[in-house]
Write a structure and sequence with these properties.
By secondary structure, the protein is of the alpha+beta class. It contains 3 helices and 5 strands. 28% of the residues lie in helices and 26% in strands. InterPro entries: Transposase_8.
Length: 109
């Protein structure tokens, strides 16, 4: 039995540099993921960072040598889609996102 491929065209393959750029653009404050996708000719972004509207804002403690200060930030999630599965990070720190981007782009090697 032969399987029919529903795609009319071959699946697009994006370079790691392109994916990294999309993550960087989507990570910017106030970024619109749908607009970034349209401007770059993709229907869906493999990495999507969106505010989680069901959660209340959380207090983040900024490290400081003299005193600790608290800042209100809204909770977010980062979803990374791999070939064989997905990974979702709830409210990831900027440091974690930086490491994730570096490792996925191969810059850490």
């Amino acid at each position: 039995m032969e399987l029919q491929d529903w795609r009319k065209e071959p699946r697009k393959k994006y370079s790691n540099e392109f994916k990294l750029r999309m993550v960087e653009l989507a990570s910017q404050p106030g970024a619109c993921v749908a607009q970034i996708a349209r401007e770059n000719g993709v229907e869906l972004l493999p990495v999507e960072i969106t505010p989680d509207e069901q959660k209340e804002p959380v207090a983040a403690i900024a490290p400081s040598l003299s005193t600790s200060t608290q800042t209100r930030v809204s909770a977010s999630s980062c979803k990374v889609e791999f070939r064989h599965g997905n990974m979702t990070l709830e409210n990831p720190s900027p440091e974690l996102l930086t490491v994730l981007i570096r490792e996925l782009s191969g810059r850490g090697r």
